[in-house]
Write a structure and sequence with these properties.
The complex is a heterodimer. By secondary structure, chain A is mainly α. In chain A, 77% of the residues lie in helices and 0% in strands. The chains are: A mainly alpha, B mainly alpha. Chain B: It holds the Pfam family BPD_transp_1.
């Protein structure tokens, strides 16, 4: 018996070591980006390449923050992602509440439509959206880009929020109505606060979609409303020597996301599996 | 339902419907409509009805068929390897050790990373001037010269290189889904199999695989749709080149529109693209439907 336990422990240790090595190898490409960003600008990418920095420097970050256009792109990214998330979560929660509480047939059809739209290739609708926005003369405006994000986010938000509302007993609404609230008051004062965890999860997903989007930002913006992903792509396509600045911008753009995902992973995982594993 | 309730129900859902009509339904109809016309993006007054001509010329175009083939290849390589790697990671993390939670959280932290950042990282990892990958291969003695593999500019490797960036980005999601599936398997199943004398291989084949199958199928379908739709990584790494060797449907649509200004053709490609993806995802919808019925 003792021997078997020892053998098990041995296997467990080997698996632990393999797991840790694989995790580190897997994260190595990102670490490489990070280490590159803290090298002195002239030695960011050298031949032969070095993984670890030989010399520590924050010059790349100082260059990035000191560039007006880069600050503007970050401001755009933040404003568009925050506002479009707030609006789409509000609109989505209203729709989801309506779907879950007034079981109208047409609303169910709408939910299926919302699901279907999740599966349309975004490049396809990008073509007509580009034309619509151009015809309205709204290219390169934060408003147009934000409106597109709101629409793209809505189906997922509705899809997630409906299941949150379903988990709240209907009796609560009824009690609020009897107490003299109208529907909207019952929704905003009683029901919505109960779904705060759900709202947080949906907000995270909708924020991330807007924050990370590249396709629509590339199509619909040129300078004024340009967001960070497009700026990063510009660094790549126009061959320039500011590789260090680019690495710093990429880290400033993505490290908060990585740290955030690390810290609140439980909620994110709950959201991901809610939308997919459960079906 | 009371008529007042009906009014409120409609009012609450109206903003969502308006937004979806504006930026989903209307664009889709417009897409279909435009695909029957010949329109030049750079000449707003152009536009003549050509019927099915856009579609007919696409079907006869060898390049277009090649783009479809590339899309399938890309999905097959990327999703296939994501699944294998994700499954291995899920199996490893299913065995608990002391700091197991910490490492798992760390592994999953790129879950929300932007595709643009992934393409940027791999552009440098795979560069043949100062890329880390070639240097590692060279140091291991696998290649003679550190510049010898042109990952992104060799037509035979370009699509694979894009797939690497995609796999790196999406494997955590796959691992997460499969791990959730593995953790849903009751321990008692394994224990009773052990008592019955089944060895670990048999337990894996007869317990783990069948139980995890529905989750695996769902995960693969979700990823198939995502990867088929993906644009950012290929656009930033190769722009579909060299010589269309890594061109997939999404990048081809973009090129047709923004480079050649051919709205009719790019709309027709989009329609075919949408139908293809729709057929694949209808399997997915059908599956959800079935599960809800049960």
């Amino acid at each position: 018996m003792f021997r078997i336990k020892n053998k098990d422990l041995f296997i467990d240790n080997i698996i632990a070591v393999i797991t840790i090595i694989i995790t580190l190898l897997f994260l190595a490409p990102y670490l490489y980006l990070f280490f590159s960003s803290i090298k002195p600008p002239q030695s960011v990418f050298s031949s032969p390449p070095s993984f670890f920095p030989n010399e520590f420097s924050l010059m790349n970050y100082i260059n990035a923050i000191g560039t007006d256009s880069i600050v503007k792109f970050f401001t755009n990214s933040i404003i568009i992602a925050v506002l479009s998330t707030m609006i789409s979560v509000l609109i989505g929660a209203l729709a989801a509440y309506s779907i879950s509480r007034f079981k109208l047939k047409i609303l169910n059809i709408f939910l299926v439509c919302a699901l279907i739209t999740r599966m349309i290739p975004l490049t396809s609708i990008a073509v007509p959206i580009y034309r619509i926005v151009s015809n309205l003369g709204m290219r390169d405006s934060r408003l147009a880009l934000g409106a597109v994000y709101i629409s793209i986010n809505l189906p997922l938000i509705i899809w997630m929020m409906v299941s949150f509302f379903e988990s709240i007993p209907r009796e609560l609404d009824e009690a609020a109505l009897i107490d003299g609230c109208n529907r909207l008051e019952a929704f905003f004062k009683i029901i919505l606060p109960l779904t705060l965890p759900g709202l947080a999860t949906t907000s995270i997903f909708s924020f991330m979609l807007s924050w990370n989007d590249f396709l629509f930002a590339l199509l619909l913006t040129s300078n004024n409303a340009k967001t960070v992903p497009v700026a990063l792509s510009d660094f790549l396509s126009v061959y320039n020597l500011q590789l260090g600045t680019m690495a710093a911008v990429a880290i400033l753009f993505s490290l908060p996301v990585m740290i955030f995902t690390f810290l609140v992973q439980k909620h994110i995982v709950a959201g991901l599996t809610l939308g997919s594993v459960k079906g | 339902m009371k008529s007042k309730d009906k009014k409120i129900a409609v009012l609450m859902i109206l903003p969502a419907i308006i937004m979806l009509i504006l930026f989903f339904a209307y664009p889709l109809i417009k897409l279909l409509y435009d695909s029957f016309f010949s329109i030049d993006l750079f000449d707003p007054l152009s536009g003549s009805f050509v019927g099915l001509e856009n579609y007919l010329s696409l079907i006869q175009s060898e390049r277009f068929l090649n783009v479809i083939l590339n899309t399938f290849k890309f999905v097959f390589i990327a999703v296939g390897l994501e699944f294998i790697l994700g499954f291995i990671m899920a199996l490893l993390f299913n065995r608990k050790f002391k700091t197991h939670q910490f490492w798992r959280t760390l592994l999953l932290s790129p879950l929300m990373l932007a595709p643009v950042v992934s393409s940027l990282i791999w552009k440098f990892m795979l560069s043949n001037d100062f890329g880390l990958i070639n240097w590692v291969f060279y140091s291991l003695g696998l290649i003679q010269n550190p510049n010898s593999i042109a990952w992104l500019s060799n037509p035979r490797l370009a699509l694979l290189s894009c797939a690497i960036a995609e796999i790196w980005l999406s494997t955590p999601f796959m691992a997460l889904m499969l791990l959730a599936g593995l953790q849903g398997i009751p321990k008692s199943l394994y224990e009773s199999a052990k008592v019955d004398g089944a060895n670990s291989l048999k337990r894996f084949v007869f317990i783990t695989l069948p139980v995890i199958k529905p989750v695996a199928v769902t995960a693969i379908l979700i990823k198939t749709i995502d990867v088929a739709r993906s644009f950012d990584i290929i656009w930033n790494l190769t722009q579909g080149g060299p010589h269309f060797s890594s061109e997939v449907l999404s990048t081809y649509v973009y090129k047709m529109l923004m480079r050649y200004g051919d709205i009719g053709n790019s709309s027709a490609i989009s329609v075919i693209f949408t139908i293809l993806l729709f057929l694949i995802s209808s399997i997915f919808i059908f599956k959800i439907w079935n599960r809800n019925e049960n």
